[in-house]
Each structure stands twice: as structure tokens, then as C-alpha cells.
Amino acid sequence: CAGLLLRDAGLGLIPALACATCAGIALAVVLGALIVRRHGVYFVMLSLAFAQMGYFAMLSLKAFTGGENGLTGLPRSFTALGVPITSPLSFYILAAGAHLACFLLVQRFMASPFGTVLAAIRENTARSEALGYDVRQYKIAVYAIAGGFAGLAGGLHAAFLGFVPPNDIELEMSQRMLVMAIIGGVGSPLGGLLGAGFYTLVAEILSEMWARWMALISLLLIAIVLFLPGGLWSIGERLDRIFGRSRKHG
Q1: Residue 243 is part of which domain span?
Q2: pLDDT tens across 155-190, in order?
Q3: What pTM did the predictor assign?
């Protein structure tokens, strides 16, 4: 969405990112209405199936997406809020600022009554329904929020690369996001950040050392699922509890 608006509509970077965010929210509302009634592995599989449908749609709609060649011809320099965005460093600062804003927004959501209800739904869906909460609507809402973040991230990624390769939306990319979340820990926003950073760093190092480095990532994922279900972030939480008890006894 952002790529087409930047290339064909001549929109600036900020309006294009805003439109991409809104498009992500709208698409997530539609898809969420179809799949939120499913739980656990069925919910994940349906989400991955729709992602794969998006990949095949991009390959098929060559007039709009460029097909296998991807969406090319995006501008390479932008201005955001009067500041020129022309170098990798300026893009990094922009992306870091967008991430910080999204993180603070998530923290605000989690601390609000809305977040309290979501936590209750996560812990006990049946009890939340018995208390009168419309669980389906809450799930669609949080799915829409996630879709907005995904739209924003995709727009930033397209602007940074200058094109949109089709493999960015294929099933393997969705699986990679899941692996990052599981490694870092799905119970905390910081866990996702930790997982993404850890995966990227380890992949960069291992890929230079061994062609089959993904096998090591697979072993790490299995170990975390079996022995550290809260992800790497839970290590810090456990240490905090241990030292917290030590300080109290001291």
C-alpha cells in the first residue's frame, strides 16, 4: 500500500505511512472477524494461510505489484516533518522513533482498562464471557491494532529498500516473526524486541560460519519451548524475583 502511494500517487512519506497503517487496520478487522473464533494452533494456522494468500495475490496482480520482480521504482529520498530522510542513518532514526511511539502506545494500552480486560481474556476466556465482556470484539480490536503496526512497519521497510520484494510477505517471513516472538517471549512487548534482536544477531553470525545455520536456530527454538516457555525475557523476570526476595530477606 505505502509503496504504491509513494510511487504512483506521489504522496509524502508520512501520509503514505498513515495510509499503510489504516490499510493494515482495515484488513486486520476483516480477517480478524473471520478467524478470532478459532483458538490456539487453529488461529495461528489460519493467520499463516491468509498471509500466504497475500503472497500469491502479489505474484498474480503483476500490473500493480510487479509480480515476481516485486514493486520497484519507489523514490529513494523523502522529507518527514521537514527533515530530509536520505541516508540509512536517517531511516534508522525514523524507524527507531516509530518503534518507540508504538511501544509506548502498547504500554498505554496494557495499563488501561482495555488492557486489563485483554489480560483477563488471556487468562480465562470463559470467565470473561461470563462477566459480560464481548470477547470476540476485544480480540478483533487487538488484532486490528497489530495490523496497524504491521502496516506501518511494512511501509517503513518498503521506503527504506526502495522496492517491495514478494518474498517479504511469503510464509517464511511470517514463520520468522513467530520464531522471534517465541524466542524473546510472547508475554511482554520487550520480549518481542529481544527476540527480534537476538534472532537477527545470531543469524548474522551463524550464517557466516555454517551454511545450515537454521538447524541451530531450530534446536534453540525447541529448547526454549521445552525448558523456557516464557522466552528469553522470562530469564530477566526470574532473576528479578530472585533478587527481589533476597532484598526483602536482607
Answers
A1: 170-250
A2: 888 888 888 888 777 778 888 888 888 888 887 788
A3: 0.83
